[in-house]
C-alpha cells in the first residue's frame, strides 16, 4: 500500500514477517523474544547484501525495532521512526492486571479471544458473500442499495474523495483531523487485503506479539534507556492502547528522541495521511545527506 511513497522517495522497503504471520512458520509464544528477532533481521540483511538500513516501526513493532538498535547499532541509519510506539508495561506501570495472572493463563485467554474473533469474522465474511450472491440474483434494487452503502462507507473511511497527489506543506495538518491514507484508487485493494487478512487464522502471530509486548515469557532484554540510536516518534493523544503516561515514560527513557503528539488521533496513525510520508521523507533525506557527506 505504500509502494508509491517508497517510489517517490527512492526507497526499497522490506517487510520481514514475524512468526505466525503471512508465509512465515508458526512458533510458540514462549519461543520468540525481541533480541532473537533482531538476529533474524540482521541475518536477512546479510543475505540480501545490505550493510546498513533504516527502520520504521509501529505499535509493538517498536520493541523489535529497538532490539535491533540495541544489539546492532552500527547497522542502523538513524533516526528510527516509531509510529504509535509501544512502551514496556513494567516501566510504564500499565496493564497491571496481566501481571497477576500466570503466563500460561494469559496466553490461553488471549488465544481463545483471537480464535473467537477469527471464527466470528470468518463467519461474517461467508454470510456477506452468500448475501451478496442472493442479492445479485433475486434483488437487483437491493444490490444498488448495497452499492450505495459501500460507497458511503468508503466515503466515511476516506473523509475526502480527491484523487490528486498528496502534497502537504507540513507533515501533519493541525487544522483538521487526518484523513485516511488509502486513496480512492486503492480502496478496492485495501478492502480485499483486509477481508483476506480477517479470513485467515493468523492468531498465532498476534499471540506472540502480545506475549512479547506484555513480557510474560521473556523480558525485552534491554531498557529503552540503553538505546544509543536517535529516535523520531509520533503518537495520537486519543490512543486507547498506549496511554499518555506510557509516552511520558518513552520520552524520559530514550536518550535522543523527538516526539510529535497529534491531537484527536488514535492508534491507527500508520494509515493516516502524512504519517508514513513523514517517516519515508525523513529516511530519504538522511540517506542523501550521508551520500553527499
TrEMBL record:
Keywords: Hydrolase. The keyword Hydrolase applies. It holds the Pfam family Abhydrolase_1. It comes from the Eukaryota. GO terms for molecular function: hydrolase activity. Residues 8-272 form the AB hydrolase-1 domain. It comes from Rhizopus microsporus var. microsporus. InterPro entries: AB_hydrolase, AB_hydrolase_1, AB_hydrolase_fold. The lineage of its organism: Eukaryota, Fungi, Fungi incertae sedis, Mucoromycota, Mucoromycotina. This is Alpha/beta-hydrolase.
